[in-house]
Automatic annotation (TrEMBL), chain A:
Region forming the signal peptide: 1-21
Protein keywords: Cell outer membrane, Membrane, Receptor, Signal, TonB box, Transmembrane, Transmembrane beta strand, Transport
Full protein name: TonB-dependent receptor
Subcellular location: Cell outer membrane
The organism of origin for this protein: Rufibacter sediminis
Membrane topology summary: Multi-pass membrane protein
Pfam families: CarbopepD_reg_2 (PF13715), Plug (PF07715), TonB_dep_Rec_b-barrel (PF00593)
Automatic annotation (TrEMBL), chain B:
Protein name: RagB/SusD family nutrient uptake outer membrane protein
Signal peptide interval: 1-26
UniProt keyword terms in alphabetical order: Cell outer membrane, Membrane, Signal
Keyword Cell division applies: no
Domain named SusD-like N-terminal: residues: 62-231
Subcellular location: Cell outer membrane
Domain of life: Bacteria
Taxonomic path: Bacteria, Pseudomonadati, Bacteroidota, Cytophagia, Cytophagales
Chief localization: membrane
InterPro entries in UniProt: SusD-like_N, SusD_RagB_dom, TPR-like_helical_dom_sf
RagB/SusD domain: residues covered: 331-418
PROSITE patterns: PROKAR_LIPOPROTEIN
Organism expressing this protein natively: Rufibacter sediminis
Length: 1021, 444
């Protein structure tokens, strides 16, 4: 044993001696563990010595060593790594990104800034959160991930409009959507449509092309966008290539969607029972008009002539929902040399909606190129082309929209046994589609014989040149184009006659083109004086112009359904062409000053001129000032183990809202005043040379914190936004020949609080991190010149209330004595209180505020887990305190007042004296409690398992055998669970045909959101 | 190029771009509309605006029907029953008009819209080709004078009620509105001032207008309207002379039957002035309310039927409980018919004890009676003339003003009752605090 030990020591000695004696060269390559890209400039040092080297542009290094030392690799932003050389002569190292030490850089208006130096309130979303989500547009991915940003999709139709509010609504009649800027170009976000429900032009952007999204929330961050920043600014930055190895990324996913929820309606037995009772009640109270005799004839008609109304039992919802497929293929190639870098991507996706015949198909390609022409000059371009095809459904208000099928009685068979065709297709008596069977026009006929296709070609192009005049001073010039070409083609065939009123087909063709040009030209100067003063200045101008044209033609009378274009229409019933344009000319500047790395000052200003503004207010000035103090740099905190980052910031500034109609300031004549066939013109609008933007003054206080070496970090913000000069139509003396004039007169305010927290609960092999955000916003209209502006069904904008409050009669339930619906009188007592006595006379009840569609607060909670190659991400998102009005309640929850199938809750109707219930006695043909009232308002709060992602990254050792960098397989579940008391289909709803600033929180046969499951794979070469 | 130069160029280029000012680029013209400043540049522009004034005058709230319909509801004393669901005409029918009645407001607003367009035409009359100038000016003055006449009758006290020189009328606006400023907040002029302007406009219009002018205003139209104004002022000789000029012009001829005077898609031979309605443009509001094919809001009472003599062919306009006088949706809305001129001349002759135009009152009345299939009369009294006038012009918007000028009564309400005058619309008084309210109304 002893011998053995000696021998071992000897050998060890010999070995070490022999290595020590030898001088040799180690070579290797350092890459990023995240994406395998080369890391130039990494410091490589022999441990315990001063011998060192650094990597070249391709990440390669060469170092001379003796023996078998340990090499230490350090690089800013990456976790240092020690690697024992052993006997190797090649040591390749992959460095992991150190998320805590890297100075996070955020994109700001006309530049970028280190996050810790930012004095404004900015929320950032990175590519990982957006990629491969099975939704047509990226905004969905923001849901629950950012404080202060409310995202609401109107309904579950794909490619449909979406509502985004940054820190509340700041306008009553102008726009409330944020300004979207893609790589420096303000985007076109609305497009004319012939459908009655808006589309979402942002869906033309491939979410997988996006590198980051920044939401500029306060004035300090947003005021550099001046007159269009009051609703916040969303900066979208697309991916760019890095020098080094070419990275090829292929991803594919496939999956399916279902509705989040179905609503329960009566089955045939329940339906017949309820309606027989309703008819008997009607006869008893009102006479025989809608009595049992009338009912039985109708039941027979709706049961396709069957004598027993219970012959059929159809769940109509099942006829229009489908298990929808979703597929997406995405290939990107990125890389470059020291001088030229590129990112190119190609994507195809095909997403079916949960409702039949609804589909969104997108094909897009992108090339982003950067070239260092000389040491001083760099040039580049972004180019992308997208084609989207949106196979659309009728808007929510149409009998032909699939969801309205729920109005059909369950006793009606889906297939008419008399014709063996879909109910409604054929009336054998006339040889034409039925005119009074089923109850209403059957939406399935639209699925069979109508289509509405919106095809959009969208081009985003941006070219730039940047010239370094001297160290610190650069000049950058950008020219961008956002070209949108939309073609809407609709055809309603002969089977749709009952709905369209035209027996031989109706066709629509509409073409819209929006060309939106933008140029930005600006200087950027930054310098550091004596290492204590750091100054960064931006000064520049921008000009934007948008030209929109629309052509529309409608024809009727087609020879047969084989002819579907207007060329075959015997009767051209409508035709028009129109256009509208606007422009902005702007000058902007920003100065950021930093003293001793801890005192921050930011000043910015923009002068905006626009064609939309009146002649006497052509230009507006939008300044902002902000201060920041990084306390953690101070000596009293510098050595704290607890607090490693603490920053206080405050900002105040003025932003505007220029989303006002084009040409609203001008005095105008229109040529639509023909008389008896003689053309004529008439004055239509009185000039308002003072017309201008709406103005918002915003004050923001923020605190950013990091504890325990950044394991716990986050931000807290409080803001007050006061909006002045709201645009309102104000009555003018009619003796002028005009009725109203658009003027800047109203006021409103938003106050809110935002809180976000990131926590690394577990680090090490098993990682667990949590992100939580909470935001609350209180909106109040403070001045509308006494006007009450109505919208939606019951929504109002009225002084002293949040925008869009529900204003109506308050439902008091059912009189236990006779089953009549009763309402609170709510008349004003002399002492100012409300008279809470009830009445069965709807018209004598006073209308009061009965609900609020604006949420009290929203929240998001993300938990990320990873272990070895496995990763799991769980996002819960919640909206709390808002109310929803069911506009269809008067039909579907109406105590059987007409033949519409009823929601199951109607079964608890009043039947006999002393019944205590909230559903009034049923009377066929007579309304009992169906007038608009708080009866149809319910709590719209919900918490939803928005996104559940499970992934597994195959071990590198395995994938490299196949020369693959990275292989990850994953599954995503979207909207898996919804916790809500809402009685309708889905609480995330706002009926598409009404949605607006004031009209919020309304449900009208709204399609539920999609619950989507996908399975995907990402392969990196 | 030296490197230094490039630098200089970039700096210059950069600063140049900052100074780049394209004010012109901010002046973007709308595509579907024309800026007011450019809309009336040429003769044809002004003529097109004149057509726009007719279009505005034909609005449902103006001569399209509401002026006639509302005044007939107010003049009704059991002849008809308003059974419609609209609360606003219901208030007028009940003679309890609220200040915020939107029909009353719309008639006010849309009438002033016509006036503003006419003012714009007149302000730009110098741009009109010499050959057309007189006609264009005449038409604009005809429209302006006529609309002021309708306004003063509805919103002011009648000429014969008290002192027109002190009774408040309506605001007199004679200049087009280019901008809303202090001057836009007008006050009410006196009834006399408005009448003076009406007479001036219509007299000048009659002089300027041609005898024929398609369906647009003619010399006869201006004279016909003048005859009504004179009747209101009890200037019977002038009224009769004006009516006589129309009759003597020979441009108009009574239709063979009473029924033929109505439901025509173009002007009939006896239409002196009528509002054009086509499938493309215009609304016949009388059709909307009276026709049983439309809303059928007016049910005819026996009390009215009983006022006709047996055999009166004019009874043919009653069918079931409704009148078919306006059953054709795209028919012109008669504003001035020749039949009225005979009745006016007859009344004037009777009142002045002369034979205006050399024709006796009896002869004029018999012209009307004979067309109605009635036996001629040999003598005629004033009440008979007025009753003939009522039945001939029924539902054409004349009854209220005939009752007022003759100091009659509507049931228990005397001709000068406060509730037989429209209120100044609440909306208008809210927008313009300088306007006083009529007596009998809130704030009046």
């Amino acid at each position: 044993m002893k011998k053995l030990l000696l021998l071992f020591l000897f050998l060890l000695n010999v070995l070490s001696f022999s290595t020590m004696a030898q001088n040799r060269t180690i070579t290797g390559r350092v890459t990023s563990a995240a994406d395998g890209s080369a890391l130039p400039g990494v410091s490589v040092v022999v441990k315990g010595t001063t011998i060192g080297a650094s990597t070249d542009v391709e990440g390669r290094y060469q170092i001379s060593v003796t023996g078998s030392p340990t090499l230490v690799f350090t690089f800013i932003g990456f976790t240092p790594r020690e690697e024992a050389v052993g006997t190797r002569s090649t040591v390749d190292v992959r460095l992991a990104v150190d998320t805590k030490t890297i100075e996070e850089v955020v994109v700001v208006g006309y530049g970028s800034q280190e996050k810790r130096e930012v004095t404004g309130s900015i929320a950032s979303i990175k590519a990982e959160d957006i990629q491969n989500t099975p939704t047509p547009s990226f905004e969905n991915a923001l849901q629950g991930r950012t404080a202060g940003v409310l995202v609401e999709q109107q309904n579950g139709k794909v490619g449909q409009g979406i509502k985004v509010r940054v820190r509340g609504s700041s306008s009553v009649s102008a726009g409330n959507e944020p300004l979207y800027v893609l790589d420096g170009v303000p985007l076109t976000t609305s497009v004319p449509n012939a459908n009655g429900a808006p589309t979402n032009p942002l869906a033309d952007l491939n979410p997988n092309d996006i590198a980051s999204i920044e939401v500029l929330k306060d004035a300090a961050a947003a005021a550099i966008y001046g007159s269009r920043a009051a609703n916040g600014v969303v900066l979208i930055t697309t991916k760019r290539g890095n020098s080094g190895d070419t990275k090829i990324n292929v991803s594919y996913f496939t999956g399916f969607s279902k509705p989040t929820r179905k609503r329960e309606f009566l089955n045939s037995a329940e339906y017949v029972e309820l309606f027989r009772e309703a008819a008997a009640n009607s006869e008893e109270r009102y006479g025989s008009d809608y009595g049992p005799a009338f009912l039985e004839t109708r039941l027979r008609r709706y049961a396709a002539g069957a004598t027993d109304p219970l012959t059929y039992d159809t769940d109509w919802q099942d006829e229009v929902f489908q298990d929808a497929s979703v597929n997406q293929m995405d290939v990107s190639v990125a890389g470059g040399t020291e001088k030229t870098r590129f990112f190119t991507g190609l994507s195809y996706s095909n997403q079916e909606g949960i409702l039949i015949e609804n589909r969104f198909e997108k094909m897009s390609g992108r090339l982003n190129l950067d070239h260092q022409a000389t040491e001083r000059l760099s040039v580049g371009m972004n180019f992308s082309l997208t084609r989207t095809k949106n196979y659309r459904l009728s808007n929510d208000n149409a009998f032909s929209t699939p969801m309205q099928i729920v109005a059909l009685p369950p006793i009606t068979p889906a297939i008419d046994p008399r014709t063996k065709l879909v109910s409604g297709v054929l009336d054998p008596a006339t040889g034409r589609p039925n005119t009074n069977y089923p109850l209403y026009y059957n939406p399935l006929l639209n699925a069979i014989d109508a289509d509405f296709l919106t095809t959009v070609y969208r081009n985003f192009t941006n070219v730039y040149a940047s010239y370094k005049i001297f160290n610190g001073l650069t000049f950058r010039s950008e020219f961008g184009l956002d070209l949108l070409n939309q073609n809407e083609n609709a055809y309603y065939g002969r089977l749709t006659a009952r709905n369209t009123g035209t027996p031989n087909g109706t066709g629509i063709s509409a073409i819209s083109q929006i060309a939106n040009y933008n140029t930005n030209n600006f200087f950027n100067y930054n310098t550091n004086i004596a290492d204590v003063h750091s100054i960064d200045v931006v000064l520049g101008m921008s000009y934007q112009e948008s030209n929109q044209t629309t052509n529309y033609v409608e024809g009727q009378q087609f020879p047969s359904n084989a002819y579907r274009t207007i060329a075959s229409a015997a009767d051209i019933t409508e035709g028009s062409s129109s256009g509208t344009d606007y422009s902005f000319l702007s000058y902007f500047t920003r100065v950021n000053y930093k003293f001793r790395d801890r005192y921050l000052l930011g000043l910015s200003g923009r002068v905006d001129g626009s064609s939309r503004f009146g002649n006497d207010s052509k230009y507006g000035f939008f300044p902002a000032a902000s201060l920041g103090w990084i306390l953690s740099e101070e000596s009293f905190l510098a050595n704290s183990n607890l607090i490693n980052y603490l920053k206080l910031r405050g900002s105040y500034g003025i932003t505007g809202n220029a989303e006002i109609p084009n040409a609203a300031s001008l005095g105008l004549y229109s040529g639509d005043a023909g008389y008896g066939g003689t053309p004529g013109q008439r004055p239509t609008q009185i000039e308002n040379p003072d017309l201008k933007w709406e103005e918002t003054a915003q004050l923001d206080f923020g605190l950013e914190y990091g504890f325990w070496n950044g394991r716990l970090s986050g931000e807290i913000d409080y803001y007050i936004k006061k909006t002045d000069d709201l645009l309102l139509n104000v009555n003018v003396p009619g003796t002028s020949g005009y009725r109203t004039q658009l003027k800047n007169v109203g006021k409103l305010e938003n106050k809110g609080f935002e809180f976000s927290l990131n926590s690394d609960n577990l680090v090490g092999d098993f990682k667990w991190s949590t992100n939580f955000n909470y935001s609350r916003n209180r909106n109040k209209i403070t001045d509308l010149q006494g006007q009450i502006i109505e919208g939606g069904y019951l929504n109002r904008a009225v002084e002293g209330q949040p925008i869009g409050v529900f204003f109506g009669v308050e439902y008091a339930g059912v009189d236990p004595a006779n089953g009549d619906a009763i309402y609170y009188l709510n008349t004003l007592n002399p002492d100012g209180s409300r008279n809470r006595e009830t009445t069965s006379d709807y018209s004598s009840a006073e209308r009061v505020v009965i609900g609020n569609p604006n949420p009290d607060y929203t929240l998001g909670l993300t938990n990320n887990f990873s272990f070895k190659g496995f990763d799991l991400s769980v996002l819960f998102q919640g909206v709390v305190g808002n109310e929803i009005y069911n506009g269809a309640g008067s039909y579907m929850s109406a105590s059987a007042s007409w033949f519409d199938n009823q929601t199951r809750d109607q079964l608890r109707r009043w039947q006999k004296p002393n019944d205590i219930t909230d559903v009034p006695r049923a009377y066929l043909g007579y309304a009992n409690g169906t007038d608009p009232s708080s009866r149809y308002i319910s709590d719209g709060s919900y918490v939803r398992l928005k996104n559940l992602t499970v992934g597994y990254t195959l071990p590198t050792s395995f994938t490299q055998k196949f020369h693959l960098d990275k292989v990850r397989i994953y599954a995503i579940g979207l909207n898996l669970l919804t916790f809500t008391d809402y009685e309708g289909w889905d609480p995330e709803v706002n009926t598409d045909y009404l949605a607006g600033n004031i009209s919020q929180g309304n449900d009208f046969y709204g399609a539920p959101q999609a619950k989507t499951f996908t399975f995907g794979i990402n392969i990196g070469f | 190029m030296k490197r230094k130069n490039i630098k200089a160029y970039v700096v210059i280029l950069g600063f140049a771009s900052l100074l780049f000012s394209c004010n012109d680029q901010l002046d973007i013209d709308p595509q579907q509309s024309v800026e007011t400043g450019q809309a009336l540049a040429t003769s044809s522009d002004v003529e097109a605006a004149l057509v726009g004034a007719y279009d505005a005058a034909g609005d449902a709230d103006v001569y399209g029907g509401d002026i006639q319909f509302l005044s007939d509801l107010l003049a009704n004393n059991g002849d008809i029953a308003f059974v419609g669901t609209f609360a606003q005409p219901g208030q007028v029918y009940d003679k309890v008009i609220l200040e915020n009645n939107s029909f009353i407001a719309n008639t006010w607003l849309d009438s002033y819209r016509v006036i503003n367009i006419a003012n714009s035409v007149l302000a730009n009359i110098s741009k009109v080709d010499e050959a057309k100038k007189a006609r264009v000016e005449g038409e604009a003055k005809f429209l302006r004078g006529s609309i002021y006449f309708e306004l003063i009758k509805l919103y002011g006290k009648a000429w014969v009620d008290g002192n027109p020189a002190t009774n408040p009328g309506v605001p007199l606006v004679l200049e087009p509105t280019n901008i809303i400023n202090e001057a836009s907040f007008v006050s009410r002029n006196s009834v006399a001032e408005i009448y003076a302007q009406i007479l001036k406009d219509l007299t000048e219009a009659e002089a300027l207008l041609p005898p024929t002018n398609g369906f647009f205003a003619t010399k006869g139209a201006a004279a016909g309207m003048l005859s009504r104004v004179f009747l209101q002022q009890e200037k019977f000789l002038d009224a009769g002379d004006a009516a006589d000029r129309v009759i003597k012009s020979g441009r108009y001829r009574l239709t063979d039957t009473y029924a033929q005077a109505f439901n025509n898609t173009g002007n009939s031979s006896e239409d002196i002035f009528a509002i054009q309605v086509t499938s493309q443009d215009g609304i016949n509001e009388l059709n909307t309310y009276y026709s049983q094919l439309q809303r059928g809001d007016v049910e005819i009472q026996d009390k009215l039927i009983n006022q006709y003599e047996a055999g009166d062919e004019r009874l043919g306009i009653y069918e079931d409980e409704y009148t078919n006088k306006f059953d054709e949706q795209f028919a012109v809305v008669p504003v001035l018919r020749l039949a009225e001129m005979y009745l006016t001349r007859a009344e004037a002759s009777l009142r002045t004890g002369t034979n205006i135009g050399g024709v006796s009152a009896v002869a004029d009345i018999n012209t009307i009676r004979e067309r109605a299939g009635l036996e001629p009369v040999t003598t005629v009294t004033l009440p008979q003339v007025l009753q003939e006038r009522k039945l001939e012009l029924i539902f054409e918007g004349q009854l209220l003003h005939d009752i007022k000028r003759t100091k009659g009564a509507v049931g228990t309400f005397p001709y000068n009752a406060n509730n037989l005058v429209f209120p100044v619309p609440q909306r208008e008084r809210d927008a313009n605090p300088n306007l006083t309210q009529n007596p009998g109304y809130l704030g009046g």
